Amino acid sequence: MHRFEYRDGELYCEDVRVRDVVAKYGTPLYLYSRNTFKDHFYRLKEAFKEVRPIICYSVKANSNLAVLDTLRQCGAGFDVVSSGEIFRVQQIGADPRKVVYASVGKDEADIRLALDWGILMFNVESEAELWLINNVAQKMGKKAKVALRINPDVDARTHDYITTAKKENKFGIDLYTAETIFANKRRYPNVEIVGLHIHIGSQIIDTRPYLTALEKVKQFISRIQSYKPRLKYLNIGGGLGIRYKDERPDTADRFAERVLPAIKSLGLRLIMEPGRFIAGNSGIFLTKVIYVKRTPAKNFVVVDGGMNDLIRPSLYKAYHFIWPIEDRARDRMVADVVGPICESGDFFAKDRDLPVVDRGDILAVFSAGAYGFVMASNYNSRPRPAEVMVDKDKVFLIRKRESFKDLIRGEKII
Ligand code: LLP
Question: Which of 106, 138, 162, 330 allows an S-S link to 110, with CB 3.0 to 4.6 Å?
Fold first, then answer.
């Protein structure tokens, strides 16, 4: 569910006509619906309300300050993966006691910053990291709270690049090593292991891999009982899939219904780290048709947005629904929707059945709210797009379009 809909052949974001936003801010452009972010957050919160989860929105999915602040106001905590993300959530006055910190490569300065700020816990991804956290905490005269991110070796049945809990993935600690950590926990006097964490992948459509992973967590907890662990939290990560095309992921209610029995039987406080579920369908990407190029082999709709703005189709062959913002009766054409960048991988869609479009038409690329702007780059010296947020009938520019000057900021001729 989201708040982008066609009314009388015109695309609206909440109560604002998208055409008017484009007229004011130009293209390429990211456009977000504030109330869709909220709806998704509350839907998850409501579905899990009987266990009062700590919902830590995964900042990497969309880290614009206005998005983070919207979710903070709803009561969200945050899942961060870098000092830069800590800096962002600090800017919006987030409560550090609702911040969890994953990433396989936290270095000393990152750990120091997080400890100093007083985050809820680190999600520790290796024994070496646990050593370093213990060491830094000792130097700072602190005790660091951590969850061990375990790698349960399950296949989340999603794209290879976003599968994270198979034993050949770089994430988490294998069960054997995790057990030895509990056995030797006295070696880490400045660390308190308060939880377990799993994150099995992203865009997961089928709840079963979660159940398999939870079963492994359960077995693991019973195996380590002799070491008297003092676990308080279970963090089940993010990964809930959304609808891009015709996927039928479980709704929040259905997901809760299926995983809650397993979670309740463990008696631990639940933490979740949803990113895409909240942000994915809360944003669209808008781009203008520059040319329609017909060749003997194919038709190409050349648009002013490129893979530097939205890389998901190029990187994962991800499907995004694309449609003109003015939906009038038109003939159909089959075309590749491509950007202006000098790479054959610069496309938003291949062989797509589309209404016949023309120079100047605006296309909406849907479900671009997560892993859209955050993965944008300046490749081909293209300023990154603006970001705009709609709240009912109000429109806010939440990130200015970059200028040519921004492109060379910090550079120097020698
Ligand atoms: N927690 C951890 C530890 C994660 O690594 C991630 C995402 C999340 C939570 C949030 O996952 P979500 O609920 O959004 O699935 N760029 C890719 C997705 C990469 C996901 C990385 N980790 C894409 O565009 O599909």
Answer: 106
For residue 202, report the distance from its CA to the centre of ligand 1, in Å. 5
Asked whether residue 402 falls in the same domain as residue 266, the answer is no
**Is any ligand 1 atom within 6 A of the Cβ of residue 384?**
no
Q: What's residue 167's pLDDT?
A: 83
pLDDT of residue 132: 98
Q: Ligand 1 mean position to 373 CA, how many Å?
A: 14
The verdict on residue 413 lying in a domain is no
Whether 274 lines ligand 1, by a CB cut-off of 6 Å, is: yes
Residue where a domain terminates, one of 222, 255, 276: 276
Q: Check pocket membership of 210 for ligand 1, CB cut-off 6 A.
A: no
User: For ligand 1, is residue 372 a contact (CB within 6 Å)?
Assistant: no
Give the long-range contacts of residues 11-16, CB within 8 A, separation 24 or more.
Answer: 11/323, 11/325, 11/326, 11/327, 11/364, 13/284, 13/390, 14/390, 14/391, 14/392, 14/393, 15/390, 15/392, 15/393, 16/390, 16/393, 16/394, 16/395
pLDDT at 166: 79
342 is catalytic: yes
Q: Kindly state whether residues 183 and 88 are assigned to the same domain.
A: yes
Q: What is the pLDDT of residue 165?
A: 76
**Residues 251, 151 share a domain:** yes
Within 8 A by CB and 6+ apart from 105, the residues are: none
Q: Look at residue 75 in the predicted model and tell me its pLDDT.
A: 98
Number of structural domains in the chain: 2
Q: What is the CATH number of the domain that holds 182?
A: 3.20.20.10
- Residue to mutate (ligand 1; options 41, 55, 60; most atoms within 8 A of CB): 60
The alpha carbons of the chain give a radius of gyration, in whole angstroms, of 23
Predicted pLDDT at 226:
97
The alpha carbon of 61 and the centre of ligand 1 are apart by a number of angstroms equal to 7
Regions in the chain scoring below 70 on pLDDT: none
